[in-house]
Automatic annotation (TrEMBL):
The lineage of its organism: Bacteria, Pseudomonadati, Bacteroidota, Cytophagia, Cytophagales. GO terms for molecular function: oxidoreductase activity. Pfam families: adh_short (PF00106). The keyword Transit peptide does not apply. Belongs to the short-chain dehydrogenases/reductases (SDR) family. It comes from Cyclobacterium lianum. This is Short-chain dehydrogenase.
């Protein structure tokens, strides 16, 4: 029976790179995006490159609790994935003292609450099965405070705390939990920035790191992956 991976926000950037990496290894794919057209394009791409891989996709806005729960139910109709990647996220720059207050709610709902609700939807099955690997996509902004990080940085600090707590809870059940903390990666979030692409990390490098962590023996787990541009943070 084929293994499967669930990646939220899988049509762009790091999420797409992870899907491409696992699909190349024969994993079936579950993913979501707010845009149906992006999902269709990804499905066509995966089908062309990996015709034996089954991709299950659903349009969903994970800033909304009801969409997150509906996506979890959609996945469960088919199977329980072997790997869960909480990748959905948005970045809106700003300062805590002057950003529009609705930014905090939107960013926390998208970056943190979606991971909370989606993870809870699958942990009981992972625990019963005594296997599974949960990755949470954090950020260097969750390790180092910086100006103009605003609510985004707060959400990533909270994501790291959430993942650390989850690691302790899942430890006795053989379920692995890993925090991924990338620095500036060349994705749509950085489009239009006046810097050479070579100054950024590649999304494929983050995907390779996730793949390597997943492939350790059951007796070991990578708890945190910190990966930065060679020339340092931006």
């Amino acid at each position: 029976m084929s293994k499967s991976i669930l990646v939220t926000g899988g049509t762009k950037g790091i999420g797409k790179a992870i899907i491409q990496k696992f699909a190349a290894a024969g994993f079936d794919i579950f993913t979501c995006s707010r845009t149906e057209a992006d999902l269709s394009a990804l499905k066509e791409e995966i089908a062309a490159l990996h015709p034996t891989v089954r991709m299950h996709a659903m349009a969903a806005d994970l800033s909304k609790k009801e969409d997150t729960k509906a996506f979890a139910a959609f996945v469960k109709k088919t199977s329980i994935p072997d790997v869960l990647i909480n990748n959905t996220g948005i970045f809106i720059p700003g300062s805590l003292h002057e950003e529009p207050e609705e930014n905090f709610e939107l960013i926390m709902q998208t970056n943190l609450f979606s991971a909370y609700y989606l993870t809870r939807a699958f942990t009981s099955e992972f625990m019963k099965r005594r296997s599974g690997h949960i990755f949470s996509m954090g950020s260097i902004a969750g390790l180092t405070a910086y100006a103009n990080g605003g609510s985004y940085a707060v959400s990533k600090w909270a994501m790291l705390g959430f993942t650390k707590c989850l690691r302790q809870e899942m430890m006795p059940y053989g379920v692995k939990v890993t925090s991924v903390l990338p620095g500036a990666t060349y994705t749509a979030s950085w489009e239009g920035v006046d810097m050479p692409e070579s100054r950024f990390m590649k999304a494929t490098d983050v995907a390779e790191s996730v793949w390597s962590a997943y492939n350790l023996s059951p007796s070991s787990v990578v708890e945190e992956i910190v990966i930065r541009p060679q020339l340092g943070d931006l």
